[in-house]
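Same chain as my last thread, 277 residues:
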Amino acid sequence: MRTQIELNMPAPGFWQATFSNPPINLVDPTTIVELSQLIEKLESEPDVKVIVFQSSDPDFFLAHYDVLVDKARTAAMVRGPTGMHPWLDVLVRLSRAPVVSIASIRGRARGAGSEFALSCDIRFASAEKAVLGQFEVGVGAVPGGNPMARLAGLMGRGRAIEVVLGADDFPGALAERYGYVNRAIPDADLDAFVDGFARRIAGFDKEAIADAKRFIDETSLPDDDLFPPALDQFFISTKRPATRARMAKLLEAGLQKRSDMELNLGQRLASDGVGEP
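reply #2:
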């Protein structure tokens, strides 16, 4: 059976997870289930110290959530160990796992893809090929994974409002300047840099890594209680007639296909009226 996430272990203590869900690496219920299973391993495996998430598609890290999946099916998914919806459960548990999680971003990471990258401890991005954004408000929806809470802590209130309410794309270099990512690295150097950084951490003591990270988590991560209300509002907002009309126009214009719409979503939302109800 084909899986969406290929797991490799390049060195002792170093895991590498590669997303592959053609045509554009959409996040869907299967992605969530596979991520939950992987995080369970990260929580229980005593030897893993660092994991790198990357994509096999140079144009898409994780595009966004699959909008054609029945919302009722998504809402009815079995709750995770935290008691939250499994998508929120994945995001919260990954942030608090006793390992260092690194998103190596080449290509687009919008919507749920951006939410996943934000839940990782560290984000390294291709200066030329990474694009991050939260486009949901441009369609009339509220971002369900509450990236608002994470972005405000990373870049401040004003820039978080710009990212979420502006619903535009942030290329790698600008994302670095805003604090959306840790570093924007020349694309030709990204893989070697991330590999070297991960191997460096993998050479350190697991207990020291986990304990030090726990203290950072206590002072920097949003409270878990902030996440469920955002997802509730997401489901409410996607039922609005105006939101459904906007989404229908986006799909007609090429959303979820390997198209100019997906490649340049931030621009297209405003440039040709597609985002209008």
